[in-house]
Amino acid sequence: MATTWQAALDAIVGELEPELIALRRHLHAHPEPSGQELKTSLRLYQLLGDEGLSVRMGPAGCGVMADDPASASQPRVAFRGDIDALHIQDEKLVGYRSTHAGVMHACGHDAHATCTYGAATALHRLAARGLAPWPLAWRAILQPAEETASGARQMVEAGALDGVQRIFALHVEPNLPVGAVGVRSGPLTANCDHIRIGIHGRGGHGARPHESRDPIAAAATLISTLYQYVPRATDSLEAVVVSIGRLCGGTNPNVIPERVELEGTLRTLEASVRLSTMEHIQQLARGVEEITGAKITVEFAGSIPSVNNDADATETLRTEAAEVVGHQNCHLIARPSMGSEDFACYLDHVPGAMFRLGTASDVTAVTPLHTSRFDVDEKALAIGAKILARSVVATCEPRGE
Ligand code: NI
User: Fold this and answer.
1) Quick one: how far is CA 150 from the chain centroid?
2) What is the pLDDT of residues 225-265, one digit of tens each?
């Protein structure tokens, strides 16, 4: 009996598995923060180049794109992995713990990069061995600066989506066991808007607040007003979150400062809720100006849209994932996450979908994303690579006219 392409692809990923684990450990031990992924990019560039792929560096030496040189002319199917790490001190006691003080792969981007590399290598070898069922046209995109929400845009501007008709990606999911995946059609992550607030008061002596316009008191009032009234103005069945994560003002215990700065994030799922909440925040700020006499400016500086998974692309992922991990381990994600993900920027240009790759096991326990003991079960690497590679082949299947 002839081997199916699925079995051939799985076997190639199986051969690659020790190399994938070694690569992931190397990346984990040598993390680089967003915008500084020079060595990570160079390593991936060399590995993919050595494999015989045509590789290009991303802008300023960060990020890599790899195409199969045999598939020049058709619309391509892209798959994307991000490569940046976070400013967190690694507190794990494992051989591959971060060797860079205060920097760590705490969001699994080392695993995403490895799965992307694994899928690219497997697809290339499948075609090179003459086992591809039809012509394949694809591009691997290894993207910098996901955590600062700038890398996807940079890669798109550098031409990452030129000639691309569809795009796939994955994100590790510590709340799912290794061997399970999650898929969802429609919104997967939230719209994310960065809020910047300036409060300009009039400084003075802490003993005589009546002679000043206290911006710290105004900041306190504004924060509690936002937390109290934003939810009251939104249908309770619609999602909205406002969080202030940075509050900066004053230097002396007995001096009322001139100015306070706040920064925060607004998360929504619906475009209409996003716009009405932005308007409402401006209104509440004007109200607090009235009460306190301080001048308040509110700016929405930079936004990432929600990842909206295409129904067709999601169905491809679901079908392939169910074959790799079994139907019972392929879960439908009931609700979107209020997190954000700059994969959304690609989806502004081409349809595609992201799935969640289970990475929890007894070995790693459940270590949440963005924490100092985050780790993944490395059995997930081959699973992720297989699902990405199979989804690319399935999407390339010629459709009869
Ligand atoms: Ni992430």
Assistant:
1) 11
2) 999 999 999 999 999 999 999 999 999 999 999 999 999 99
DSSP result, 321-334: HHHHH-GGGEEEP-
Give kind and range of the element (H or E) at residue 338.
none
- Could you give all domains of the chain from N- to C-terminal order, each with its CATH number? 4-189+310-396 (3.40.630.10), 191-304 (3.30.70.360)
Q: How far is the CA of 166 from the centre of ligand 1 (A)?
A: 21
Query: 3-state DSSP call for residue 78?
Result: strand
Q: What share of the chain is helix, strand, coil (3-state, %, to 5)?
A: 40, 25, 35
Yes or no: say if 23 and 44 are a contact pair by the CB < 8 Å rule. no
For helices 215-232 and 271-292, the axis angle rounded to 10 degrees is 140
Q: What percent of the chain has pLDDT over 70?
A: 98
Q: Nearest 5°: phi and psi at 70?
A: -75, -5
User: Tens of pLDDT along 193-234?
Assistant: 999 999 999 999 999 999 999 999 999 999 999 999 999 999
Distance 341 CA to ligand 1 centre (A): 7
**Cα of 55 to ligand 1 centre, how many Å?**
24
